[in-house]
Automatic annotation (TrEMBL):
SUPFAM superfamilies: Metallo-hydrolase/oxidoreductase. It comes from Geodermatophilus saharensis. Residues 2-147 form the Metallo-beta-lactamase domain. SMART domains: Lactamase_B. The lineage of its organism: Bacteria, Bacillati, Actinomycetota, Actinomycetes, Geodermatophilales. PANTHER family: ACYL-COENZYME A THIOESTERASE MBLAC2, METALLO-BETA-LACTAMASE DOMAIN-CONTAINING. This is Metallo-beta-lactamase superfamily protein.
Length: 193
């Protein structure tokens, strides 16, 4: 499952073939459109950090977009366990996929981030809080964020409130009033223009 088309969530797809790779239609399109640029940026970062081995692995990783595409909802039987794939709306990207397991566990990708502020680089800040509201309604058990420790519905609700506060600060032109550091708030503001 690709929750979205950022390199750290989809550059390993080829390692799982011939298995089917699921993602939203937008995820597949975004990986085709931005994959090479993401690769070049990551390789440059790794080389600058002196990690030539990792840089070479990323440089050689095949870009392999998802081939089973979800527009809204898909229900899978995975070894007798029902798994529901859902596009709940735009947030961290325009194509975030949420994976809900019948025990109530939800894999949220980067719609939810624990341990760091949400990344706004490809985000839709005005829509993200509503998408988190829909995710919050699904969260009956553990919520596995794209980064950080496993959280719960209360965390999702709190992050939604933080996003609303960030949006209010950006709209008021007072980025210092926002809940995140100045750099994060500037990126959020840039995404509104």
């Amino acid at each position: 499952m690709n929750t979205h088309a950022h390199y750290d969530h989809c550059f390993g797809n080829a390692a799982f073939r011939p298995a089917t790779v699921w993602g939203t239609r937008g995820c597949a399109a975004a990986l085709r459109a931005t994959g090479e640029a993401q690769r070049a940026a990551r390789v440059a970062e790794l080389r600058a950090a002196g990690d030539d081995d990792a840089a070479e692995q990323v440089r050689r990783a095949p870009l392999d977009p998802p081939d089973a595409l979800v527009d809204d909802v898909a229900v899978l039987d995975v070894g007798g366990v029902e798994v529901v794939l859902r596009f709940l709306g735009r947030g961290h990207t325009g194509h975030d996929l949420v994976v809900e397991v019948e025990d109530g566990t939800v894999f949220a990708g980067d719609l939810v981030e624990e341990g760091a502020p949400p990344a706004f680089d490809d985000a839709f800040p005005t829509e993200w809080p509503a998408t988190l509201g829909r995710l919050h309604a699904l969260a009956r058990g553990a919520v596995v964020p794209g980064h950080g420790a496993v959280v719960d519905a209360d965390f999702v609700g709190a992050q939604r409130e933080e996003l609303l506060a960030a949006l209010a600060a950006v709209r008021a032109g007072d980025l210092h009033r926002g809940p995140y550091d100045a750099a994060t708030m500037r990126v959020a503001a840039a995404r509104l223009r």
